[in-house]
Each structure stands twice: as structure tokens, then as C-alpha cells.
Amino acid sequence: MKSYTLKELAQQLNAEIQGDETLVIASVATLENAGDGQLSFLANSKYRAQLDSTQASAVLISAKDAAEYKGNALILNDPYVGFARTSQLFDTTPKAALGIDSTAVIHPTAKLGEGVAIGPNAVIGENVILGEQVQIGAGSVVGQDCIIGSGTRLWANVTVYHNVHLGQDCIIHSSAVLGSDGFGYANERGKWIKIPQTGGVRIGDRVEIGASTTVDRGAIEHTEIHDGVILDNQVQIAHNDIIGENTAIAANSAIAGSTKIGKHCIIGGHSAVAGHLSIVDGTHISGATNVTSIIREPGVYTSTTIAMNNKQWRRNTARFRHLDELFQRVKKLEKLNNTDK
Predict the structure, then answer these.
(1) What is the 3-state secondary structure (H, E, C) of the chain?
(2) Average pLDDT over every residue of 264-268
(3) Beta bridge partners of 231
(4) What is the CATH number of the domain that holds 12?
(5) Residue 96 belongs to some domain of the structure
């Protein structure tokens, strides 16, 4: 197991050392549960009380909190980012595959880069290109004419349809589906006529896609997921969507077709974005929000209501039905008031 001195970690994080620089750290833990040889962090003020009682050997901490803490610490501007980077150093996650399993089915036209690993019962289709150090987990399928960039990992049972391109250093979690048909139909006198989805999917570098998330292929042009995007579990990305760089979309959210979401956006869980819209860079959508119109100005947008007692919720819901009537009454009263003046 890897271990680092506090001095070595400080150099990795560009942090200031408080205390014993020769102290050896072997893992990370929470303030509440940390023990000897472990490094913890304080990134949220509501856990400040735990700092006094923690048994962690050292703590990642801001300069403000360090002024009141006498133990070993690494001081930096953003302790949570420091925790993320430190966790990578101690990461014990196994590889998605080791070597090329004898049960893997690999088309003779496929091109495999150096160090590619393919797990049991995986299928690699015609004209597929796998870059160096790509890992394909057990039971995964990579369809015809796909390209997967160097260092990308597919965990078990991922399905990649035909004509899907993934960039470098992506992580695709189990049961994700990339390149399934978009929901494209025309209605002829009550009968649905399928529109073939002939576009592909283009995914940039350092993209992470959660378990059971679906990214549909484009109807004509490609669906695009740009560099650094993170998609949580069970997210739906519909055909011809464009998701800008470093945008994050939390679980159970759905983005309808032909919608463009800008760079550095955050979309909270269980949100829905209607089709054929655009959302400007830097927008933050609160959880369970329904977006039904274009967002042109960055900011925080919310449409959900807070949790409340069910009896109160029922009363408020009943009153909501009369909102337009109430508005018209107020408008009439304001008009009468202005006339009296």
C-alpha cells in the first residue's frame, strides 16, 4: 500500500505544512472516523466541531481554520480539492480488465493499441480502434466503427453502439449505453413512423459517464459530449444534444433532444430540460427543476418547491389552482385604486 510523508503530500498539493513534515500518511478518512496514519479534511463549516475531537494524524485545512487548530495540517485554499487530489494518490480501485481474456470476441479488423486489456465475454466489433492502455470490462460490447481513445476505461456490461467515438482518459460505468437510437418518430394518422438515427456520438477527453446512463445517437448530425463533462448515474442525454465542457449533470436528470447546454454548467438531480433549447455557460440548475425555455443569462434557476407537511402541501396545491383568478382580482383592485386617485 502506498504511503507519503506530510512533506511529500505538501509538494504534491502545493500546500503549507503545519507540524511534523516527516509524519507518514497511509490513507484518507472523514474527521469523525479517521485514526492513526490517516489524513482527513475540513471543507464544510458545519463539521468544524469534529475538528477538535478528530483522531486523524493530519488534516487538510484552510488558513482561517488552521489558526485555531494545533495539530498536524496541510494548509491550502481549497481543502476539498486537496482531498480529491490526495484520494487519487491512495486510490485502490482495480483495473476494469487485465490482459485479453480467452473468451473475448475480437473482430479481425479491429486495431488494438499497446497495453489494451479486454475482459471475459467482451465483444469488439468490425473496424474498431482501441487506443493504448484502453480497458474493456467483462461483458461489454463495442460496436462497428467505434474509436476509443488512450487510457479510457469501460467497466463491465457497457454497450457502445456503432459509430461512437470516445476521447482519452474517459470512465464509462457499468450498464451505460452509448449510441442507442434517439426517440425520433413521425406520426401518420395515428401511426408512428420511425426515423432512422444515422448520426453518431462524439465524446471528448476526461469524460465520466455514470452507471445506467444513456447517450442517444444523433438523428442526422452527432450527439456531442465535450471535454471534462461528468454525468451521474441514470442520466438521459437525447439525440443531437450538445453538452459543453466541464458541465456536470446529477442523477435522474433528462435532457430532451437538440438542446445545447453551455460550458461549466451544473444541473441538479432529477431535473428536466425540454428539447430545442439552449442554456448559457455557467448556469446552475437546482435539483428537480423543469427548464422549459431558453436561458440566456447565467445564474441559479429553480422551479421546485420545498418539502412540507402533506396537509399544508394539499392546501397550497388547492390554492395554486386559483392563482390566476387571484391575480385578476388584484389587477382589478389596483385599477380601481388608481382610478380613485
Answers:
(1) CCCEEHHHHHHHHCCEEECCCCCEECEECCCCCCCCCEEEECCCHHHHHHHHHCCCCEEEECHHHHCCCCCCEEECCCHHHHHHHHHHHCCCCCCCCCCECCCCEECCCCEECCCCEECCCCEECCCCEECCCCEECCCCEECCCCEECCCCEECCCCEECCCEEECCCCEECCCCEEEECCCCEEEECCEEEECCCCCCEEECCCCEECCCCEEECCCCCCEEECCCCEECCCCEECCCCEECCCCEECCCCEECCCCEECCCCEECCCCEECCCCEECCCCEECCCCEECCCECCCCEECCCCCCCCHHHHHHHHHHHCCHHHHHHHHHHHHHHHHHHC
(2) 98
(3) 209, 249
(4) 3.40.1390.10
(5) no
**What integer best gives the mean pLDDT of the chain?**
96
pTM score of the predicted model: 0.92
Show which residues are catalytic: 239
Tell me: the pLDDT tens digits for 164-197?
999 999 999 999 999 999 999 999 999 999 999 9
Domain residue limits at 318: 310-340
Count the domains in the chain. 3
